[in-house]
Write a structure and sequence with these properties.
With about 450 residues, this protein is α+β, with helices and mostly antiparallel strands. The chain is built from 16 helices and 18 strands. It has a 7-stranded antiparallel β-sheet, sandwiched between helices. Helix 1 packs antiparallel against helix 3 and helix 13 runs antiparallel to helix 14. The longest helix is centred in the last third of the chain and has 20 residues. It is globular and about 70 Å long. It starts with a helix and ends in a 12-residue tail after the last helix.
Length: about 450
Amino acid sequence: MSAPIDDLVASLPAGVVATDPDVVEKYRHDWTRDPHAGTPIAVVRAESTEQVQTTMRWASAHGIPVVPRGAGSGLAGGASAIDDGIVLCLERMRAVEIDPDSRVAVVEPGAFNAEVKAAAAEHGLWYPPDPSSFEICSIGGNIATNAGGLCCVKYGVTTDYVLGLDVVLADGTLLRMGGKRIKDVAGLSLMKLFVGSEGTLGIVTRAVLRLVPAHGARSTLVALFPTSRAAAEAVVAMGRTVRACLVEFMDQRAIEVVDDFLGMGLDRSAGGLLVVQSDAPGPAREVEMAEIERCAQAAGATECYRTDDPDEGESFLVARRAFFPATERLGSLLIEDVGVPVPRLPDLLDGIAAIARRHDTDIPVVAHAGDGNTHPNLIFDGADPAARERAEAAFEEIMTLAIDLGGTITGEHGVGRAKRGSLAAQLGPEVMDVTRRIKEALDPARILNPGAAI
């Protein structure tokens, strides 16, 4: 170990800093398995805000790059390690405290989304943001990427539930922003600057999250369509008249992939599948479900099935949630999450299918269809350079397509390293210039997650 690392090791409790190559290797990648990930000189598994501050002061003094990391479940390469840098992991900071009277959760960044939900449920409360990976993703990572999820079409994304943050800056300065109060417009809205910043501006060490009363009863509709476009047109129609709490889509290839994985007996002939839920109170739920079914049938649904049973309704979501592990077993992946205005969803799905054919690449698609956020997974043989080249070309074309349709290169996964090259095409030079000036003001040495997002 070099002398500076010796200094860092000595300044933190035993076991916090790991330099053993076998341990370090486990922290080089997030879920994207970035082949370009570097090898850090150490991993700091911080246990407190003070230890994060100590690490950042040391890194700032020595000009060492730091990659913040949560649970490692990210899908855009945002936590890929850097050669000769530090991975600062928050997985040991797991405390969750519920204040039922204020209806908030005070949470450390390493706590899983599912743990916050479970703790809130004990008090009859609910934390709505629900990424498909909610059982294995951390709150710190959710905040870093402004994560969404299945029910966000009605209830909003992570930023809508962040009331307070403690953030450590690149030089070790601690900012305390917001709190348990619902309304607060004192000063600039700096807190929102850090939500979705992907660890490039600061490191979240504590969050105050807004909770709502427990989720009410839900009814579920499963609808099958002859084409993806017909399913998407149904989604557009539903959005004009109802506010469903969940609208999820699977194309034909996604149905096949998931059915091969789970053996659920899904209808593999369907061109598209929608799972739609309503949680409207009392008799209003039946009215809303009837309208949802009417929209599906008007768009050409070949089959509709409704249930009020919560367990049966959740079983239909098992297939949707299994999409990522189902595709992962088939080969190497490039993972997209492009989004468009909902009326352009049919065009986006058609365009992705055309790109798949043009580049001879397997691209099954699922979507949080109600808010226009799609998840095409590009599957290819990682040992075949030609296959990788085709997949990478298709990946870039999908992002260009989304931008051309008035959309975004990422709806919830973040830019990370995988999409950084396309960011300027979406934001434009003026916004990129302001973004870089903010980065320069908070991290002038550019040691926080260099190469990601900005």
